[in-house]
Amino acid sequence: MSVVRTHRTRLAALGSVLIAGSLAVTGCSSSSSTSSSTSSSSGSSSGSITSPTAVPSLAAQLPAAVKSSGKLVVGVDASYAPNEFKDDSGHIQGMDVDLAGAIAAKLGLKADVRDSQFTAIIPGIQSNKFQLGMSSFTDSKDREATVDMVTYFTAGTSMAVKKGNPNKISATDLCGKKVAVQTGTTQADEIKNTLNPACQKAGKPTIPNDGDKFDLQTDVTNALVAGRDDAMLADSPVVDYAIKISGQLAKIGDTTDTAPYGAVVAKGSPLTPAIHGAIQSLIDDGTYAKILQKWGVQAGAITKSVVNGAVS
């Protein structure tokens, strides 16, 4: 994820077809939804992050039902390493998971992080199944029409191919190529709404089936590694991590269409200003930077969080 998730971002059509991307590499084949409680210091990167102290003025902003529960229920699609994924024991971890734990701590709560299909998270926010969505959602005007988005990171779209680019894929022309994407992401939308119309206008074959779509990002990556697809598109930190972990992929082209990620909260909820304050507090006290450094994604750091700051 209209998505990554993925964005989860918007791609631009530049002449022929300009894109970039790659996704996560761990092997997961089902889309079952499981539940997992986590703290702010989960993860497979170096060191743990000290849980921040609660800020009474922020905790005072919480809706009574949330405060009395003592927890913040967070929806993630745990197939998008290094942002949100499962370790070998099935524990949910990643940048977004650590940030969710730290946000909850700032509010005097514990994070209850639950795995979900990406496309079910925003409906889950609207139905109060989740109170917060932290799953690499690109902040967009479309999303802001139905939920609040509190910015906390920036990412672009990248493209990955097999190492050595055996199929001679062009980063500027995907017409006629098999491209793997995650269902419900902006990358999937862009193939259908921007890239394939550009191919048709140029008199070229389109990307088959408007992209080879998978419910899980891990399955997207596995399809490329197995050679079933020619390329994959995903958010830049996900592509970088997939390349590092798999050892079988390479990035081609530039990272495009940088845009903010937004933490998802119910539209007009009194929880929105509390989440916004918690994120800004984490940025100001240095906890945020430590979490990003832990996962090697500090290039996407922001200095100021805003509510509903999408430009498109």
Automatic annotation (TrEMBL):
What is the protein name given in its UniProt record?
A: ABC transporter substrate-binding protein
Q: Which Pfam families match?
A: SBP_bac_3
Q: Which InterPro entries match?
A: Iontro_rcpt_C, Solute-binding_3/MltF_N
Q: Where is the composition biased (Low complexity)?
A: 29-50
Q: Name one GO cellular component term.
A: membrane
Residues of the Ionotropic glutamate receptor C-terminal domain:
71-298
Q: Where is the signal peptide?
A: 1-24
SUPFAM superfamilies for the chain: Periplasmic binding protein-like II (SSF53850)
- Please name the PROSITE patterns in this protein's record: PROKAR_LIPOPROTEIN (PS51257)
Q: Which GO terms describe its molecular function?
A: ligand-gated monoatomic ion channel activity
Provide the alphabetized UniProt keywords: Signal
Q: Where is the Solute-binding protein family 3/N-terminal domain?
A: 71-299
Q: Where is this region: Disordered?
A: 28-50
Q: Which residues cross the membrane?
A: none
The UniProt record lists the keyword Signal: yes
